[in-house]
Specification:
It is built from two helices and 19 strands. It has 259 residues and is mainly beta. The protein has two domains: 154 residues, Sandwich (Immunoglobulin-like); 90 residues, Immunoglobulin-like, CATH 2.60.40. The strands form four sheets. Strands 1, 5, 6, 9, 10 and 11 form a six-stranded antiparallel beta sheet that branches. The chain is rod-shaped and about 90 Å long. It starts with a strand and ends with a strand.
């Protein structure tokens, strides 16, 4: 499994993204950010308050078939250093709180104050995803609330589980004994495939026998299993096992008897 990522075309980008504390970082690039911030102030009306944020992808991984992405960036302001909420919206969905920047997190360089942050977003579906990170200060002591969003980040996730050798296997294939097993006679039913969560198992047999159950997923693999209690079966003869899930259906027919 592999992952690739990119970000949207950031036109007019003027803020420097800084190193945020994580493995391999040696410190903050404070002087550069300070000079960039001062340059911004010098090019704008001194009476205009700046409140702006950045975001970029710094790492990706897979987790149970979905993507996990880490974003880092900065929030820069020439106003107050009240706490700021960080929210993230995935693929245009509802914005969820993913972090908070506290007042003490801001680094002061004259009129410009900036704070680094790092967030992780899990559960990204396979394919191309868009993430919008936004920042909000509620305002206090008569100050106006502030809101800004970084440029949208594009993340490509490739975490799909690839299943080879799909179909039924194990005891069901090699064991034709309906009367085997300690306690109630049973036959373990195993199938391999991309069947999603809790695929449906149907067993039909002689004399109108029919049985339905949901199969359990074995960890993060493509293997599903169910321990079929054969008590009350339809007797010796041909049985058909069918499992359906995740848009796939697999069937297997076996002649079973007691011996």
């Amino acid at each position: 499994m592999s992952l690739t990522w990119g970000d949207a075309n950031w036109s007019g980008r003027w803020l420097a993204v800084v190193c945020v504390a994580m493995a391999g970082c040696t410190g903050f690039n404070g002087p550069d950010v300070g000079r960039d911030g001062k340059a911004v102030v010098s090019r704008t009306d001194r009476g205009t308050e700046i409140f702006a944020g950045t975001a970029e992808v710094v790492g990706q991984s897979c987790n149970e078939g979905t993507g996990s992405v880490t974003l880092e960036g900065t929030l820069t302001t020439t106003g107050s250093v009240d706490s700021a909420e960080i929210t993230a919206s995935v693929n245009g969905g509802t914005a969820n709180l993913v972090g908070i920047i506290e007042p003490q997190d801001f680094i002061h360089d004259g009129r410009v104050k900036w704070a680094p942050y790092s967030i992780t977003i899990d559960g990204l579906p396979n394919g191309t995803n868009t993430i919008e990170v936004c920042f909000d200060q509620s305002g206090s002591q008569g100050r106006e609330p502030k809101h800004t969003c970084a440029d949208v980040v594009v993340v490509v996730v490739d975490c799909a589980v690839s299943c080879a050798g799909v179909g039924f296997f194990g005891d069901l294939v090699g064991n034709t004994n309906l009367c085997q097993g300690k306690g109630p006679p049973h036959i373990p039913v195993h199938v391999k495939g991309d069947l999603g969560d809790l695929p449906a198992l149907t067993i039909t047999g002689p004399n109108g026998y029919s049985f339905h159950a949901l199969m359990n997923h074995s960890g993060e693999s493509c293997v599903y299993q169910y321990n079929w209690d054969t008590a009350g079966n339809g007797g010796a003869g041909q049985y058909t096992f069918t499992v359906t899930g995740g848009g796939h259906t697999y069937s297997f027919t076996a002649t079973l008897r007691c011996h």
